[in-house]
Write a structure and sequence with these properties.
The complex is a heterotetramer, with two copies of chain A (153 residues) and two copies of chain C (82 residues). In chain A, helix 2 (58-73) runs antiparallel to helix 3 (104-121) and helix 3 (104-121) packs across helix 4. Chain A has four helices and eight strands. Chain A is an alpha+beta fold and 153 residues long. Chain A has a single domain (2-148), classed as Alpha-Beta Complex (Aldehyde Oxidoreductase, domain 3). The model of chain A has no long low-confidence stretch (mean pLDDT 93). In chain A, the strands form two sheets. Chain A has a four-stranded mixed beta sheet, with helices on both faces. A four-stranded antiparallel beta sheet of chain A has the order 5-3-7-8, with no helix packed on it. The longest helix of chain A is centred in the last third of the chain and has 18 residues, at 104-121. Chain C has one domain (2-76): Roll (Ubiquitin-like (UB roll)). Chain C has three helices and seven strands, in the order E-H-E-E-H-H-E-E-E-E. In chain C, the strands form two sheets. A five-stranded mixed beta sheet of chain C has the order 2-1-7-4-5. Chain C has a two-stranded antiparallel ribbon with strand order 3-6. The mean pLDDT of chain C is 95. The chains are: A alpha+beta (153), C alpha+beta (82). Chains in contact: A-B, A-D, B-C. The interface between A and B is medium-sized, with 29 and 29 residues. Strand 2 (30-37) of chain A pairs antiparallel with strand 2 (30-37) of chain B.
Chain lengths: 153, 153, 82, 82
Amino acid sequence: MNLSLSIQADDFNLQDEYQRLLESDNLSGAIVTFVGRVRDLSVDKKIAGLFLEYYPGMTEKALDNILQEAAKRFRINAARIIHRVGQLNGLDQIVFVGVTSVHREDAFAAAEFIMDYLKNQAPFWKKEITESGDSWVETKDKDKKLFERWGEK
Amino acid sequence: MNLSLSIQADDFNLQDEYQRLLESDNLSGAIVTFVGRVRDLSVDKKIAGLFLEYYPGMTEKALDNILQEAAKRFRINAARIIHRVGQLNGLDQIVFVGVTSVHREDAFAAAEFIMDYLKNQAPFWKKEITESGDSWVETKDKDKKLFERWGEK
Amino acid sequence: MIKVLFFASLRERLGVDKIEFIVDTPLSVMDLRLAIIKQHPAWESELTKKNLLIAVNKEQSHIESLIHTGDEVAFFPPVTGG
Amino acid sequence: MIKVLFFASLRERLGVDKIEFIVDTPLSVMDLRLAIIKQHPAWESELTKKNLLIAVNKEQSHIESLIHTGDEVAFFPPVTGG
């Protein structure tokens, strides 16, 4: 099982991450990736950018827990999470999840599971930077609902 | 709505397809991709390769129907299918599906829906090429079950 | 005239990918199949297989679908793409 | 000694990211919070917000969790990653 994660300021490249997932994986015929982008901030002239804060040490632990839980629940061969932190602009890539599996339904389910858990369980906080001051982004109830569908195990 | 498809002998590059999906899309914060690979044929020494046959004209129509149906059922901004045909080897990329959306649950659902329908509705036939002759691959009941979960609409 | 296409394993077993068939239309796919079998009795077991799929003018169809002159009818085994 | 961390909007509102707190242990997170509020009465409304999350030693925890000397406790608002 090849589980890995990275919390980084730098951008990532989908093709590089895809190849890394498959590096030593000759078993998987199904590869699902998810990329999340910052929304287009240019439509709201007041917002100059985003700032992502995290809790060093705990955030890594939380992401690792999510990966371990996904590996327990689904038949997967590899999974990777990248989450960016620090200053981000509109349409910047912010999060990557990649999963490989023999079974496409497991690859899809694991990737979606990881995203739902990450949105609810991983200590990241988003701040909008505006001319008139900064404002922290509030949690969406929608993400909580998406999270709850997976239930306890 | 940016829906496109390609049936081609050539390989594809995930990064190129990802960028093409987002080319004129400033709305989508969620991008889901699926890549299917031929399984590792080297474990079964008898199989020299695969050959993919299709029904020119009808296969394109079927893929377009799948894209239209996905666009009706889910809130998506762009979707693309690539399916390779002709001679393929073990671990070759064979199918790509990419979907963009404002909502990550729609991006995931649409990509999975497209794959389930494609596996059941698109006229492609896989043949295994062996030293002792060729043999056509049979349909898996599993794919039928995955397809049926979407119901009629 | 009706164009009739065969694909994949069916095409290989029949040894032909396309026949042109002159028949009174409109008729159902089932009647067309009967007419083909009358002309090619050796094809009966292949063309009456339960899991065979049918397309008319490149759209998935049924054994009851009506066919008209100039239509393209295709018979093929279950699909195995992706 | 207990290390207490604050993150994001909570950190900004309190104006401090970390305090070190000497208190008799073991005690619950709830008791720790009471002790902090006793020392910083102005923080009461922030530290008793219903949606505040708690971590002990970098693992998500509860208001009833027991804390021992040397532990690291964190308070933070709901997360908004991805």
